[in-house]
Amino acid sequence: MDLLTGLTERRSIRHYTEQTVSEQEIKKILETARFAPSWKNSQTARYYAILNPELKNQIAEQGTLDFSKNKYNIQNAPALVILTSVRNLSGYEPDGSFTTSKNTHWESFDAGIAAQTFCLSAYANGFGTLIMGIFDEQKIAEILNLPESETVSTLIALGHAAEIPDAPARHAVGEILKIS
Predict the structure, then answer these.
(1) Between 16 and which of 85, 89, 103, 159 could a Cys-Cys bridge form, CB atoms 3.0 to 4.6 Å apart?
(2) The pTM of the whole model exceeds 0.85
(3) In the sheet where 150-159 sits, what is the strand order?
(4) Residue 67 is part of which domain span?
């Protein structure tokens, strides 16, 4: 797969086959995804791969703020990846002060880049993904016993796509580009 194909053909997948995802396959995805750029190369992204069906179900039941679509997406995907970020690095100077007026915004920015890079790497390796944003950060941190130095950034369902939806409508370039 070339990069432009991946950028234009990768979709949010909500229906997966029953084919499992192995630990080795996730490691292969991360071999590429770990090259995602980050603030001053801080490399704050951490990945927790959930393959255990009981643990995945617990996260779906207790960690989705009763949002039924995310419960479904988690329970029906063969794997769930929890993307976390190491706190207080992106956007900070060594003395702990913020570098720019964006303050902690850079942590989310870096997590977004990491999530997209993970999803593109998964796509290149034959997998479908879905980035989910409705979740109970505290509950998931508790379930996974995450260190206090990390914050949950997003949840990513992972598996082999059972169906690939059509591309949603996009704005024309002329609507989103201003050249001076």
Answers:
(1) 159
(2) yes
(3) 45-50, 79-86, 150-159, 128-132
(4) 3-163
